[in-house]
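Example (one chain per record):
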Amino acid sequence: MILLTGATGFIGGHVLKALSEKNLQIRCLSRKSINSGNPNISYVTGDVLDYESLVKATKGVDTVYYFIHMMGKQKEQEKFEVLDRIAITNMVRACKANSVKRIIHLTGMSNPQEKLSHHLASRKEVEEIIRNSGINYTIFRASVILGKGGAAFETLDTAVRKLPVIPVFNWQKTKVQPIYIGDVIRYLAECLDKSETINRSFDIGCSEILTYRELMQQYAKELGLKRVFIQIPGSWHRVSAYMLGRLAPVNPDVIYWLIESLRNTMVCEPNDLKRIFGFEPVSFKESIRKISEQVSE
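Predicted structure:
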């Protein structure tokens, strides 16, 4: 039995679909009762901030997919960091109480030589709690995930499509290694059967390393859009979040924390994922082509 958290979210929804195709028994954690209509998919009512509900949810479970991350209001970073800590601590305790064998987790990349944003620092803490829990784990770290419905991609898409003149701030030269959503889900779903991934953490990304400015420029080029980029000193987090929040289908507070994280480098450390999984993530250009095909269907 698999317990899937965040099943109605961007990552969780894709993972649910991938796992359901494997004919596995999947239990989804939800705040309200849902009837899936699929005999292999059930829903259990619970909340990661309620320990007792997690004990109930993890009963009879072998593997937990943990895709929970809090993102509060712009002036409440301490609050969501505390909630993140409580949530994962509750889950780890519940997993131990029911002898869950493994936790699979997706988080953000981080550079140990940099001071992390509030968003990435909280994600790093969650990762460390899982790694030090004594429970087997597999952890994947990504930077920009390219796919419709993802907050980072929707913000990028909105900026490039709707702003003929795009301001770039002090994060323009930060380097990242984006990855297509399909490849992320493939790693998450296939690692279930890969014993080589147990008790290991992996950075995942395509082969290209781009600055955020190059990311936007190449995306505009793939869309056939001519855009002018203007450099402006400073970070302008709040102004950017407010402006993009009015244009993008993303909560302005989420955009704020994502923009704050733009200062942090997200480049993959070498790993042996190709040997283990037998594939490499598609290129940035191919990612955009795939997304465009999905939108036109």
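Caption: The longest helix spans residues 77-97.
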